[in-house]
Amino acid sequence: MHISFKLPACFSFSLFLIISLITSSCGQPQLVETESDQTTPSPPLIDHDYSAHDHSGMWLLSQLQGNVYNSMNSLGLSISTDSIYHAENPSLNEAIVRINIGEGGGGTGSFVSKNGLILTNHHIAYDGIVAASSGQHNYLEDGFYADRGEKEIAIPNYSLYIPIEELEVTQMIDGMLAEDLSNQQRVAQKAQIEQAIIDEWHNEDPNLVVEIDEYWSGNRQFMTVYKIIRDVRLVYAPKRSVGKFGGDIDNWMWPRHTGDFTFLRAYVSSDGSSDSYHPKNTPFTPDFVLPFRKAELQPQDFTMILGFPGTTHRFESSYAFQFYHDQQIPVLQKVFSVYLNSLERGAKIDSQYEIQNASEIASIRNALKYYDGVQQGFDKHDVISKKRSKDREFNRWAKADSIRNLTYGRVIQQLDQSYRIAGQMGDLLYLTFYSLEFSNLLQMSTIFDEYADYYGAEDREKYPEDERRLLYDQNRAWIDSFNEEAEAVLLADLLKIMAELPEGRRPLILYQFFDSEETESLHKEIDQFIDRQLSTSALLDTTSAREWIFTETYDQPADSLYLISSEIRELFEISRDNYIQHFQYLIPAQQRYEQGMMEMNNEEGRYPDANFTLRLTGGLIDGYSPANGVYNTPFTTFSGMLEKQTGEEPFDLPRDLYNYSNHSGNFGGYGNKSGDLIVNFLSTNDITGGNSGSPVLNGSGELIGLAFDGNIEGIIGDYFHVPELSRTISVDSRFILFMMDQIDNTERLLDEIEVLIDY
Questions:
Q1: How confident is the model at residue 105 (pLDDT cuts 50, 70, 90)?
Q2: What are 345-354's contacts with CB under 8 Å, separation 24+?
C-alpha cells in the first residue's frame, strides 16, 4: 500500500505537512528523545462485539482483552495478550518497527533475525534502492543482494522506531489542566503540560524517542517510547519486475501477482547506541524476532497484522465528509493530475529526469488512484447521507436529556459552523499550497524575496556585492537543475485551475495579465503568456536575472513570473490564516462529538482513528464479491503471473523466473498441493497507508505473509468501512522464501532466519 498515505508511505505526504502548517497553533503531539521508567496502568474496559463478519478495528495493544481478544481467539488467535505486548518482558510489539522516510511518510517493517534483519515492502524501500544505485549499478531494475555484511549499502533518510512501551497519560494531563479555559488557552496549556511530562521523563538519552499522541479526537492521550535506529542498510531487493510486477496498472487491483518485499538491516554503534552510518557499526540485536511459517494457507485461516496505519477519518461528522467530498479531494485531484502530467512530460524528453522522478511519479499516480477510489466510494455507498442521518440521531439524543443537552446540545451546530468557515477558502488553501509545493518555478522566486524586501525599504545602503553574486549563482543553479518544458506546462495548468475558482477567490493577478473570460480562450492566453515568459523572466533567463540583480536603481520588481509567484504565496498565507479560524470551533466540537457518539452507541471500548501509531487488526483469509455474479477468490498463483506476462513493463518477469523449469512441480518445496505457487492472498484485516510492510501473522504469531496494498473497492475504508468489500492484499511468505531460495540464491539470509515447516 503505497503511501506516502498510501499516501503517501509514498504520498509522503505533503498533506501531513500542510496539516502541521495550518494547525501549528492547535497543539501537536510532542516529539523528544527520552527514557521511561514508569509502568503502564490497567487498560480500559472493552465492550465490543468483534463480529465474525466485520473485522474492522485498528486496535491499540492495550485494548486486546475482553470481547476483542475473545473474538480473535475464537477465530484462531492462540497466543496471550502478554505475548503480544508487555511493558517489561520481550513481546511481539518489539519485533515491529516504524520505518520513517525523511520528514514525510513511511511504513512498517519487522525483525526476522537476531542480526537486525528487517522484512518490509519493496515500495517502502524504493527510495533507498534508488539512492543505493549508481550509473554502474541499477539496483531498481536488476535487484540487489549483499552476499556479505560489508556489501550491505547504507540508505539515506531512513530511520527506524521500535516501540518498547505504551503509557496512557490522559489523567496526568487532565489533572494539571486549569478549569474555565477557552479552547485556545486549553490547547496552549495542554501543550505545555505534555512537554512538562516529557521533560520529567527526559534523560537526554539519544537512543530513545517519545511521542505523545491524541486518540479519540483528543479525549485521551498516550505516550509511546521508541528506540531509534539511525543506520539502515539495504540487504536484498528483488528485481523491479518482481517487486513492482503489474506496476500502477495493478495498484489497488485484484487479482494481483506482485512480489512486493525487500530486506533491510538495522545497525548500531559498537556499544549498542544509536548512531548514524559508520563503517564500524554492527547489526542491531532485537529483543523479539518473527519466525517464518512455511505452510499452505487456507480460506478462513486467522490472520493478524501489526503495523502503523497512517490516517483514517471514520469517526468524523457528516460536515467533515461533505468538506472532503465537495472541496478538498476535487482540488487535490486536479492539482495532482496536472503535476503528474508535467512529470510524465519531463520524463519523456529527459531520461535522467525520468530516473530522478521515478518514485515521485509512482507516488502521484498512486495518490490519484486513491482519490478517485475514495470519491467513487463516497457516492456508491451514499456515505454522506448515512453520516448525516447519524448526526441527526446524535442531535436528537443530545436534546432528549437536559444534562446531555448541556454537554452535547451545540456540538452539531459547532461542527456545521467550523466547516462553513473551512469551506470559505479551503479549496484556495490546498490549491496554493500544492502549487508552491510542486512548482519549482514558484519556489525559485523565493530566492529573490530578500532582495526585493531590501530594495523595498525606505532607508537602505547599497546591496552587498557578495550577496548579489550569491543570488545570481543560486538562480543559475536553479535554472540548470529543472526541466523547463515540464515546469512551464505545470505552471500554466495550475493557473488554469486557479481561473476556475469562484470569482471572489481567484488571484487578482489573473485579471492583470489575462483578458479572456471564456475558458478556451483564457487557456490559450495562459499558454502563450508562459511561453513568452520562458525567454524573458529573470527566473528562467540568466541575462535578465543579471540585469535585475546587478542594477543600481531598483523599484518594485516588474518580472511577471515573480509577481505571480508572490501573489500565490500571499494567497496561501491569507487562506491559511482564514482556514485555521475554524479550529477554535472544530477541536472542542469534534472531541465532544466523538465522546457523545461513543456514549450514545454504548461504545466505550471503540478503537480510535489511525494516527501512525502501532495497531493490531485481526481477520480471516477470504475473497469477496465486487459485483453481482462475480466472486474474487482469495489466492493468486504463479500460473496467473505467467498469464499476465507480456514481456513489456510492467508485466515483464525476469527471465530466470519466467523460465523456472520446475513451475509445474512443487517449486522447491514451496508450492501448494495443486502443484502451483501462491503469490498473493486476500484477508479481511483492517489496514490503511502506513501498514505497508506490516507482517501478516497466524494465530501463533508466526509470519505467513507481508501486507502491501488494499483493494480498490475498499479504499473508502479510510472514511467508511465496508466489511463485505474491504480486503488487505499480501505477499505469501512461501513466495518470498521461494524467491530467496530458488531464484536469487540468498543463502546467507536463509541461514539467519528461522523457518518453521508444517509436515
A1: confident
A2: 345/485, 345/486, 345/489, 346/483, 346/485, 346/486, 349/483, 349/485, 349/486, 350/483, 353/483, 353/486
